[in-house]
Write a structure and sequence with these properties.
With 195 residues, the chain is of the alpha/beta class. The chain is 51% helix and 15% strand. A 6-stranded parallel sheet has the order 1-8-7-2-5-6, with helices on both faces. It has a two-stranded antiparallel ribbon with strand order 3-4. β7, α5 and β8 form a beta-alpha-beta unit. The radius of gyration is 20 Å and the shape is globular.
Length: 195
Amino acid sequence: MINRKTIKKGFVSIGTVLALFLATPFLSSAIIDVQTADQIYETVEDAPQKELGLVLGAAAYGNRLSDILRDRVDTAIELYKAEKISVLVMSGAQNEVEAMKNYAIEHNVPQEAITMDATGLNTMASVNNIAELERSIIVVTQKYHLPRALFIANTLGIDAVGITADKSQYIKIFEFKTRELLATSKAILDIFVLN
């Protein structure tokens, strides 16, 4: 017969495992934030020169960019015009990269300075694809997203820095940040456990 002490120990054990499981995303995110902090730049003026600007995809509706994606492309255009990069790599789903390219061309970036990666369906794929080019990069995305992107780049041996593209107030920012916590844990699992 199971006594109260055994039941109590069982609940404590379950509680400990649950607490560790819930804390893991926060802990891994905090570690990656610290590791990549000195690679993140807030302004175009402060950013170093690199060869490519990797613009990570987000929602596009036909030829209209979501606020978050428009801010990324605008920041990449600023980098290009400031001669911090010579090529913009638009990475995301096919509709996203087409919309990004068209937007950049409308804002006076020559077509020959734009490369499209329509197989960059997530951050891991986008960074992995650019690793094959063996070029230095500036990752262009929002501040909450940069640590994970740079962590992946560092793991793949890419010479990378990031620039924040936070030009707007985003309605779903809490949702984005929550999803990023889980994505960071998944990136660690993908790289170190699943290879």
